[in-house]
Design a protein that fits this description.
The chain is α/β, with parallel strands linked by helices. The protein is built from 26 helices and 23 strands. The protein is 41% helix and 18% strand. The structure holds adenosine-5'-triphosphate.
Length: 694
């Protein structure tokens, strides 16, 4: 081997020098932030409460700055622009200046970084050469150049064969990576769209919708930090597995102040993961369920007493079941929310008791009535009765009543409606609806992260500081004042889910990301109306992404056939990467062995992750088949759970069953077939399902 460094090595060494300078500066700034934090602690007299607040604000800001500087900056510097007049601009994950205040690194979200993503040979925006710098940690390992202006770039070194292809061919891990170094121009437009109103981002599978939505959240926080960090940004995705998959992306971009929730976790205190069967799910998702809930909150709790007995001046007074039921109905007719209605309920009972007593008097007077009422109001046995007869109800209590099919029948509910022991994902919007129908019980005091004891606010421990800098503010239960809401996989939201989100984003602007062709919700028109109601009548900006970056072209061609069958006339994205490996379709008598074999082959052939997908009802069975093979790399997933996820290799068991699993089955199969980046194998008992591919 020659000792003379190659062109690439020389260029890498040059960039390494610059990258080292940036890291050195980062270290200096970090040391300054640590010193500021320490100075903050010494700053004032801790015996004066006001001074503590001031001190904590100082420490808080220093701690925050430190967190930003401490984020895991894998590849802190990833871009370089060579501009006219020999100007060079470096682009990275955050902005840094040197001691003379010259820009060392431009934050990727700053306007000055936009040409890095948007310049093309036709619209160069002054860019002669764009360079993507690839690193592991702080070590530069590769360079990929793009010469946009060959005329002015004569003599410039151009190396590499495309940063994008290199990024797309890399093996996947269990967590999504940021794409900050290779955001493509059409994606960048959606990332940088104005924050106001509603931004709709659509595109087929693998077009980067999720990636774009997350980078957009980071962009908005950068562009108007006060607004978006103050109010908060809520990011919603379909499942807990999906949220785990994407949870590293924003921290890797230096952003921690974003709330990530799955649809099963929107209602505070519940983390639902299980799904209803398709029929029950359809009933629970439709607005048609609301009248049932309205009737439900007016029902007596199943354990409510059915008789009230009291004595007054030697007389036994008895209210029986019918009278109690009528009293309850009278209170509800007033339209008061049940959790705010207890005093009215007590008054209604006292009125009924008085009527009973009055009938036993010859000529009841107003004084006698007043004295009766006053006496009753003091009675502990009446108070105790009211507490049991008209308890403060939580949404979970009330939903639980529906586990009894007799209750569903009493309310004339549909027979297919089912409620399990634990709330399902489809129950969560019902819980939120019940929260509104019941009224909030008296709230516990809002938690203040700076609160120590009354009148004194400070952050006492390192953990407090750390927590406060991460949380920014502790949001109240079922917080509903988010400044921005990002909804991923929005095509699947049911009308009831939209209502729930609408409540969280009353004052928010929105980014709504989805692909109608992947929808597993059958009544698209009802869902769209509910969406429009949830987000309000603000301005819409729409973006369409057209390139599939995930699937090999060979895999996508087959998935596309299924999509066309489900939705004739559909416009599909273009897959950019060919691997030369076509999907393989296997017919087997022993499905278990065939699935194990296919999974083992993929584990051997590919780096990264492998998914085995099947109908929802067989997920646990299939998980059992493969549990010993490669925990960590190999995952069994139900058809609906594959939404938004990706694997290097995918085995699909009985695709035909997925197509028939629900009314939207073909679209679900399309989702499942578009999860693999490298290889797809199907396993089925017969080849019948393959007619879907023609
Ligand atoms: N510009 C890019 N540079 C590098 N990788 C990219 C780029 N855009 C997308 N990708 C990769 O392509 C894959 C698909 O992206 P993503 O999951 O965001 O797509 P999606 O449109 O949300 O897909 P789906 O609708 O199927 O859930 C991810 O691995 C993502 O990192």
């Amino acid at each position: 081997m020659s000792d003379i460094p190659s062109t690439v090595e020389t260029e890498i060494a040059t960039e390494q020098e610059y990258v080292d300078r940036v890291y050195l500066r980062l270290e200096q700034l970090r040391a300054e932030a640590v010193a500021n934090e320490a100075a903050g602690y010494r700053q004032s007299d801790a015996r004066v409460p006001g001074a503590l607040v001031e001190r904590d604000a100082f420490v808080y800001h220093a701690a925050k700055r430190l967190r930003t500087l401490d984020s895991e900056y894998e590849g802190l510097v990833f871009g370089r622009l060579d501009l006219a007049e020999d100007k060079v601009r470096y682009v990275g994950r955050l902005g840094l200046r040197d001691q003379q205040m010259n820009a060392l690194l431009v934050d990727w979200r700053a306007p000055a970084a936009a040409p890095f993503y948007q310049a093309t040979p036709e619209h160069r925006e002054d860019v002669i050469r764009r360079r993507v710098i690839r690193s592991t940690g702080s070590k530069v390992i590769g360079i990929e150049d793009d010469l946009l202006d060959p005329e002015r770039g004569q003599g410039m070194v151009v190396v590499g064969d495309g940063a994008l292809m290199a990024a797309l061919s890399r093996a996947r891990s269990n967590q999504m990576r940021d794409i900050v170094a290779t955001i493509q121009a059409e994606q960048d437009k959606a990332v940088r769209a104005p924050g106001s109103g509603v931004t709709l981002i659509t595109g087929g599978p693998g077009t980067g919708k999720t990636a774009v939505a997350l980078h957009r959240a980071a962009f908005l926080l950068y562009s108007d930090r006060r607004r978006y960090e103050g109010g908060g940004v809520l990011v919603l995705g379909p499942s807990a597995v999906f949220m785990t998959y994407i949870e590293r992306v924003l921290p890797s971009l230096g952003e921690n102040a974003v709330t990530l929730r799955s649809l099963g976790g929107v209602f505070d205190g519940v983390e639902a993961d299980e799904h209803d069967d398709p029929r029950s799910a359809a009933l629970k998702g439709s607005l048609g369920i609301r009248p049932l809930l309205v009737k439900l909150v007016r029902q007596p709790p199943p354990d409510a007493p059915t008789e009230l007995r009291l004595t007054y001046r030697g007389e036994v007074l008895r209210l029986e079941a019918d009278t109690l039921r009528a009293a309850r109905a009278r209170v509800h007719e007033k339209g008061i929310l049940p959790n705010h209605g207890r005093n009215r309920a007590a008054a209604a009972l006292i009125a009924d008791l008085w009527r009973l007593y009055r009938d036993r008097l010859n000529e009841p007077t107003v004084e006698e009535r007043d004295s009766f009422v006053a006496d009753m109001k003091e009675r502990t046995e009446l108070l105790e009765f009211v507490t049991r007869w008209w308890p403060q109800l939580t949404p979970l209590d009330v939903l639980g009543w529906l586990r009894d099919p007799a209750m569903i029948r009493r309310l004339n509910g549909p027979r297919a409606l089912r409620f399990k022991a634990l709330p399902t994902v489809q129950d969560v919007p019902l819980l939120d609806e019940l929260r509104m129908l019941l009224g909030e019980p008296p709230k516990p005091k809002r938690t203040d992260p700076f609160h120590v004891i009354d009148g004194i606010r400070e952050l006492t421990t390192v953990a407090d500081r750390e927590f406060a800098s991460r949380q920014n503010v502790v949001r109240g239960e079922n917080y509903d004042e988010y400044a921005h809401v990002v909804v991923d996989e929005a095509q699947d939201l049911s009308p009831m889910q939209w209502r729930m989100l609408g409540r969280r984003g009353k004052y928010a602007s929105w980014t709504i990301v989805g692909d109608p062709a992947q929808s597993s919700w059958d009544d698209a028109a009802e869902a769209r109306r509910a969406r429009d109601q949830a987000v309000g009548r603000t301005r819409r900006h729409s973006f369409e992404l057209t390139t599939n970056y995930r699937n090999s072209a060979e895999i996508f061609e087959q998935a596309a056939a299924v999509a066309r069958r489900g939705l004739p006339g559909i416009v599909l994205p273009t897959a950019v990467r060919r691997t030369g490996v076509a999907p393989s379709h296997r017919v087997a008598g022993d499905l278990r062995s065939a699935v194990r074999e296919a999974a083992s082959e993929l584990l051997d052939r590919l780096e990264g992750t492998i998914g085995v997908a099947c109908v929802m009802s067989r997920r646990d069975e299939v998980a059992g088949w493969i549990s010993d093979l490669a925990p960590g790399r190999l995952h069994a997933v139900g058809s609906l759970e594959t939404k938004g996820l990706e694997y290097d290799g995918v085995v699909v068991l009985e695709p035909g069953d997925i197509a028939e699993e629900s009314p939207a089955g073909l679209r679900t199969l399309y989702v499942v077939l578009t999860r693999a980046t490298q290889e797809l194998i199907t396993v089925a008992a017969t080849a019948d399902w393959q007619k879907l591919l023609t």
